[in-house]
Specification:
Structural class: mainly alpha
Helix content: over 70%
CATH architecture of the largest domain: Alpha Horseshoe
CATH topology of the largest domain: Serine Threonine Protein Phosphatase 5, Tetratricopeptide repeat
Shape: globular
Strand order of the largest sheet: 1-2
CATH class of the largest domain: Mainly Alpha
Largest sheet: 2 strands, antiparallel
Distance between the termini: 8 Å
Radius of gyration: 24 Å
Number of helices: 15
Strand content: under 5%
Length: 320
């Protein structure tokens, strides 16, 4: 292969690695200001891979990094969708910038489909068939109706998540208030109302509902901050989520759910070292008392450690 061609291919491969570097940074801190940059960058990376397809270069490390980026898009589309909403909405961005049918321009549709599927699966679980045997004489399959309160909680949580992803905070407030009117003693609903009021800048209303939630969780005050931290994080308020986690740790310094929350916040900020450390602490604290959480923390920690290794993979070139 002529030296000039080899040099050009290496330059293109170097460009690819720089593009991947930028994509890996942007994807963990995507917001309304840089979401278009990220989406169009993904288009360019895809095109660069296409241009290098028959180059003979060993691009396995770069391909692994690219697959990691794509996996993150598939696993956490809500961050991109939320950022796109701030920038005008995915449909508007598609009309203005999308050059093809690449899936990252349609993450809003993918998110909606996945949430609908999750709600359906949960609903099916709630109405499982229970086999009732009476006296050994007869047995029948019977569908027990789901607990109405549980159904309302599932539907409300799903609706709120969908609405805040779309940026429809006023409608989210209406949904949670309607649910609270039916079940005023549910602290999870009260905490969601607090978070929505906070986002809308209605601090007095947020403080009043927070006091109600505090009273509902008087027997387990740390749980209030767990709920509040998780909901703030889902709403995109990482600073508020961290503040809630620290408030909870002041009450329950060995609560693994709070360390898991801090790990999730650190991961969202791109601070992988801190996230790994928090997930490790979560595992240590939860392995006896909350084994399911311990398993999840161990998996998240392993994924982050693997991602850190992938991100540092060197670029290889063919032998001359």
């Amino acid at each position: 292969m002529p030296q000039l061609v080899i040099s050009q291919l290496r330059n293109l491969a170097s460009t690819l690695r720089e593009q991947l570097d930028q994509a890996e940074r942007l994807i963990v801190q995507v917001d309304g200001e840089n979401v278009v940059t990220l989406l169009t960058l993904l288009d360019r990376i895809d095109q660069t891979f296409a241009e290098l397809d028959d180059s003979g270069l060993d691009l396995r490390p770069e391909q692994a990094r690219w697959e990691g980026v794509l996996a993150r898009l598939h696993s956490r589309p809500q961050k991109i969708v939320h950022a796109a909403h701030v920038a005008g909405g995915m449909s508007t961005l598609r009309a203005e910038h999308a050059v093809g049918a690449r899936f990252w321009w349609h993450l809003d549709e993918e998110l909606t489909r996945s949430r609908v599927q999750a709600v359906r699966q949960f609903t099916v679980t709630l109405v499982v068939i229970v086999v009732v045997v009476v006296g050994g004489v007869w047995a029948i399959n019977r569908f027990f109706p789901p607990d109405p309160e549980a159904v309302v909680m599932v539907e409300t949580s799903s609706s709120i998540n969908m609405l805040i992803t779309e940026g429809n905070w006023e409608q989210a407030l209406t949904v949670v208030q309607d649910a609270r009117a039916k079940y005023p003693d549910q602290p999870e609903l009260a905490v969601w109302e607090v978070v929505i009021y906070e986002h809308l800048g209605q601090s007095d209303q947020a403080a009043a509902v927070l006091e109600t939630a505090r009273q509902l969780l008087a027997d387990d005050p740390a749980q209030l901050w767990i709920f509040l931290g998780n909901d703030r994080m889902m709403a995109g308020d990482l600073a508020g989520a961290e503040e809630a986690a620290q408030q909870g740790l002041a009450l329950a310094p060995d609560e693994p759910q709070l360390f898991f929350l801090l790990g999730s916040i650190a991961e969202a900020r791109g601070d992988l070292a801190s996230a790994i450390n928090y997930f490790e602490q979560t595992f240590t604290l939860a392995q006896d008392s909350q084994p399911q959480l311990a398993v999840i923390a161990r998996v998240r920690m392993g994924q982050l450690m693997q991602s850190s290794s992938i991100f540092s993979s060197p670029l290889t070139t063919p032998a001359q």
